[in-house]
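Cross-check.
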Amino acid sequence: GEPLMRRVVLIANTSDMPVAAREASVYTGITIAEYYRDMGYSVALMADSTSRWAEAMREISTRLEEMPAEEGYPAYLGARIASFYERAGRVVCVGSPQREGALSIIGAVSPPGGDLSDSVVQATLHVVKVFWSLQSRLAQQRHFPAIDWLTSYSFYKQYLPDTFEDKAKGKEFARMVQEAMGILEQESQLAEIVRLVGAEAISAKDRMVLETARSIREDFLHQNAFHEVDTYTPIEKQYEMLRLILHFHEQGLAAIENGIETTELFKLPVREDIARAKYLPNDEVDKIIAIQDKVNEQIKGLSPVAA
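Predicted model, tokenized:
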């Protein structure tokens, strides 16, 4: 198709413009988006940021001497935000030729100090079905995309199994996602203990949880947008990558039960193969599956520590 900039409409609204113009810019943008949607296009609208839009509403409401609500915002803040996001969706356009259009809205909320209890954030969370919580600490750690996996959520997860032709595989992927989230939550609970007493003071199984959580973060969630392969990962490859990480976790826990030290598990050469799996070409998923056999072989080759 055409280059990206030929397919983009930009509406710039700076802070030194009249407050009424700042409020109107959001409606202008979505009206233009609906125009192209009705032509049968799939449109993505990025609103950055709805917090500034809400501040403009607050300023206008103050000048009109309306009754303020929480934090000085007008009482109709939630209704305005809801009516904005509810204009998204897929439609069958009237007239001819027969066509379908879609409008997706991505709204950026920038609360003061990253406070998620802010009125604009809470009003947005009551409406949207997907929330990505961007954290500066992750960006400072060079973890991109800097999305906090513990505070972000999606109500579309229920449709995940249907994205696979093999429905059984889709259900298995949903189960693995749930298991991976459980491991990440355990890591957050163990992190404070490790900071106080060190990793050696916790049990071997807990150390395995920490190592698997690190692998999920760095080998699965972390993504390099400038890498020709890692910039896009089809869902079939995502399935095998997560399956590989969780397979190592399960085999590692079984090895710990048999007396294998975690230090020996973490030094296995196959750990490097797991870390590099995301850089394998997307049409070479079979190589990721083959790494599972290397996991089994190398763990079987370890000797338990004598009691």
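The two ends are 66 Å apart (CA to CA). The beta strands are 42-48, 89-92, 100-108, 130-131, 153-154. Passed to J.P. for a second look.
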